[in-house]
Amino acid sequence: MHPTFPPAKFQSFSEISDPDLIKPRVKKLRSLMQSKKLDAWLTPHSDVHRSESLPKNQRRLAHITGFTGSAGTAIIGTNNAALFVDGRYTMQAPLQTDTGIFEILEIPNEKPGAWAKNNLKPKAQIGFDPWLHTIAEIRSFNLQLKNHGVLLATENLIEKIWDDRPPPPFKNIELLEVGRAGVAAKEKILAIQNHLEDKNADALILNMPESICWLLNIRGRDVPNTPVVLAFAIVHKTKKPELFVDLKKLSPEQSQLLSAIVTLRTMEEFSVSLEKLAKDKARIWVDPTTCPDAIYKLLSEKGATIFEAPDPVVATKAIKNPTEVAGM
């Protein structure tokens, strides 16, 4: 007797994306682009923290295209548009977006900057949000564009037309004891400060939640699938790091405990601290593959010296301590 199996179940995207919503949204975006004298708008999947799994209020690419994959980029011109996805999503993307508006192109064979060069008019004005693109991404796009157009940093236009945008995530923060982390946060901070000393850098900018949470032994539930807190951090060579986070996520007891190892600040104070570093002519360590272009521009234009190198936390946390190994 042959075994029987239930019918195969295939993934469906109809419940989470409606291509019929895309046309009116793109129309609103193009109207706003025209008022800003922009010939195109560039938008990535990523948020400022380079997250793959995004909280609902950060899903800008999904809002304007309908595409809900974990990686992608779109360019919306006044009369044409393209959605760039990798090989995982060449079947999903056409089901979720309006293919009468968006041409679906597969990366790395097709590149956004090259598409812009070939499909936009000469000297096209291309708007982008500098907080959502890294230093390296903007350099790469400009190389592909080959002076055919100009990238213009501006406010985020998709947010302007997103009428029912959800609020930011609000989940409590968890502090890990040494028994769970294996190494105290103070020791981890000292190790990174030693890297700063070796490279003659005054401070390190962190926007990746994975690095920040590992360094400070904190966890959260701000994004799906990954137990991280959305935050920024500045690790100083000779004083306590600054942690920029929604302080309402911390209990009074947690705030007191964290204050022993970091200076707690609101998210809104991040730019203020960056400006102070720049005015002090500090030498600042940034990772060009993860650091937003906006941070680079702010620091360099205000007088800081930029040192570009990989985030040292990434390599440091890759070497697992016995407690971490036991927890695998």
Description:
- It comes from hydrothermal vent metagenome.
- InterPro entries: Creatin/AminoP/Spt16_N, Creatinase_N, X-Pro_aminopeptidase_P.
- GO terms for molecular function: aminopeptidase activity.
- Keywords: Aminopeptidase, Hydrolase, Protease.
- This is Xaa-Pro aminopeptidase.
- This protein is an alpha/beta fold.
- It folds into two domains: 143 residues, Creatinase/prolidase N-terminal domain (Creatine Amidinohydrolase, Chain A, domain 1); 153 residues, Creatine Amidinohydrolase, Chain A, domain 1 (3-Layer(aba) Sandwich), CATH 3.40.350.
- It is built from 14 helices and 14 strands.
- The strands form three sheets. It has a six-stranded mixed beta sheet. It has a six-stranded mixed beta sheet with strand order 12-11-10-8-13-14.
- Strand 2 and strand 3 form a beta hairpin.
- Helix 4 runs parallel beside helix 5 and helix 11 runs parallel beside helix 12.
- The radius of gyration is 22 Å and the shape is globular.
- About 2% of the residues have low confidence.
